[in-house]
Amino acid sequence: GEDVEQSLFLSVREGDSSVINCTYTDSSSTYLYWYKQEPGAGLQLLTYIFSNMDMKQDQRLTVLLNKKDKHLSLRIADTQTGDSAIYFCAESLDSGGYQKVTFGTGTKLQVIP
Amino acid sequence: DAGITQSPRHKVTETGTPVTLRCHQTENHRYMYWYRQDPGHGLRLIHYSYGVKDTDKGEVSDGYSVSRSKTEDFLLTLESATSSQTSVYFCAISESAGVNEKLFFGSGTQLSVL
Q1: Measured distance CA(B6)–CA(A99) in Å, rounded
Q2: Contacts of B104 in chain A (CB under 8 A)
Q3: B45/A33 touch (CB, cutoff 8 Å), yes or no
Q4: Distance in angstroms (rounded) separating the CA atoms of residues B91 and B54
Q5: Which of B40, B83, B89, B91 has the greatest number of CB atoms lying within 10 Å of its CB?
Q6: Nearest 5°: phi and psi at B71?
Q7: Count of CB atoms within 10 A of residue A94's CB?
Q8: E strands within B26-108?
Q9: How many contacts does A have with B, using Cβ atoms within 8 A?
Q10: How far apart are CA A8 and CA B40, in angstroms?
Q11: CB of B114 within 8 Å of any CB in chain A?
Q12: What is the pLDDT of residue B88?
């Protein structure tokens, strides 16, 4: 199966850490991604992690991958109002000739000043 | 948006009319995709192209057709629009369909079918 699930909404205070969670069902995922969508815009790739890694850090962003539980998380340190957006996780699967990317439903992050 | 232009940005049309959305890229990327975004569904792949005149169906292709006569342009056509096709449509491109499929998205087209 190829379901990617996320909670719909997260609210945090400016300066706190945000943790956005995602679960997926296909253990053969090769790469997992986090995309950010600001209002009225397309999705922007934030970061990605290869499936044989446990963690990846990129400035304020930390991605954790638990393959056993098929759980992916994105931690944003020192969350700013500019981080308010919808965050999508996605998985990449070999689909017989091309890499099929399946997206979650998105988590809306609200940052309270 | 990584040299990707979608047109129009907004369109209102009536049920039963044909509609064509255009995606234009200046990156010379081989792969192009059309997605639709609906509340509660995230993004779903409609069609994709892996080269000029080479296209294939995604998971929600019924009622849609595509054409790619040039590397830079990928057209999505709704042959006879229905209200269920009211959505936000995104074009995306990628340099290769290797294992790491990094997608770059356009700004989207808001389509309303009345």
Answers
A1: 23
A2: 45
A3: no
A4: 16
A5: B91
A6: -55, -40
A7: 13
A8: 31-38, 42-51, 54-57, 64-70, 73-78, 87-94, 104-105
A9: 63
A10: 9
A11: no
A12: 97
